[in-house]
Amino acid sequence: MGHEAKKRFGQNFLIDQNIIADIVRAIRPEAGDNMVEIGPGLGALTRPLLQTLNLLHVIEIDRDIIARLKTDYPQDRIVIHEGDALKFDFATLPVPLRIVGNLPYNISSPLLFHFAGYAARITDMHFMLQNEVVERMVAAPSTPAYGRLSVMLQYRFHMEKLLDVPPQSFRPAPKVDSAIVRLIPIPPDQIAVQDEALFAQIVAAAFGQRRKTLRNTLRDYLQEGDFAELGIDAQLRAENLGVTEFARIANRLANAHRPGFS
């Protein structure tokens, strides 16, 4: 391939043409889409996407790959944004935005939360991620994979695991299984959370000691009577509550205007 994968950038390049075709079919690009690819690498998705798209934005941090992007693709069809996707301002791109990419597994969770901040501008996102992370993203309450990441993403996105991708589909092969996930933002008027910062605080506290009951983990927020009025059993653990229940807790506290909350 003429490029040595760099561990510091979490580079594993997709080489399985059947998987690539399946991903592009799942994305369903259309010529006029405002699409941005995170970490185009050696072009596994870039090339087939450009067969349909009029224009593709790409965000790349590796200077060697940036040099290849400038020589391997028609510059009137690709816009190269040099830098870290974690620091990129997606509000500078046209809307409605579609985001795709093989995300570096070592920073996948921070990237997902970064994208969440732009959810109102996004139509959908399709990402390659570590399978374990995807399982946590889409997990239902009271299952082993369900946790803080599940709640914090499910209140903002409809999510669906689309495809399993084995290690041998990459070069170099990662030590973990991968998967493709689709995220579709929930419209702002349908988000049940009134105070996002408070919601995040409640979820973090509840899952901070996940083997303890809500009576213990949320004792700084709720009294016994609060649980009763919310219709939530204080003997349950965080993993037993769905997004709706966490939203009810946060909204009750937000409406109570208790000291210390904003």
Automatic annotation (TrEMBL):
The broad enzyme category this protein falls into is: transferase
Catalytic activity entry: adenosine(1518)/adenosine(1519) in 16S rRNA + 4 S-adenosyl-L-methionine = N(6)-dimethyladenosine(1518)/N(6)-dimethyladenosine(1519) in 16S rRNA + 4 S-adenosyl-L-homocysteine + 4 H(+)
Alphabetical list of InterPro entries matching this protein: KsgA/Erm, rRNA_Ade_diMease-like_C, rRNA_Ade_Mease_Trfase_CS, rRNA_Ade_methylase_Trfase_N, rRNA_adenine_dimethylase, SAM-dependent_MTases_sf
Write down the superkingdom of origin.
Bacteria
Q: Which residues of the sequence carry a binding annotation for S-adenosyl-L-methionine?
A: 12, 14, 39, 60, 84, 102
Query: What sections of the sequence does the record tag as coiled-coil?
Result: none
Keyword DNA-binding recorded: no
Q: Which GO terms describe its molecular function?
A: 16S rRNA (adenine(1518)-N(6)/adenine(1519)-N(6))-dimethyltransferase activity; RNA binding
**Listed GO cellular component terms?**
cytosol
Which keywords accompany this UniProt record?
Cytoplasm, Methyltransferase, RNA-binding, rRNA processing, S-adenosyl-L-methionine, Transferase
Q: Name one Pfam family in it.
A: RrnaAD
CDD domains in the record: AdoMet_MTases (cd02440)
Q: List each copy of the Ribosomal RNA adenine methylase transferase N-terminal domain by range.
A: 19-187
> Into which family does the record put it?
Belongs to the class I-like SAM-binding methyltransferase superfamily. rRNA adenine N(6)-methyltransferase family. RsmA subfamily.
Q: How is this protein named in the record?
A: Ribosomal RNA small subunit methyltransferase A
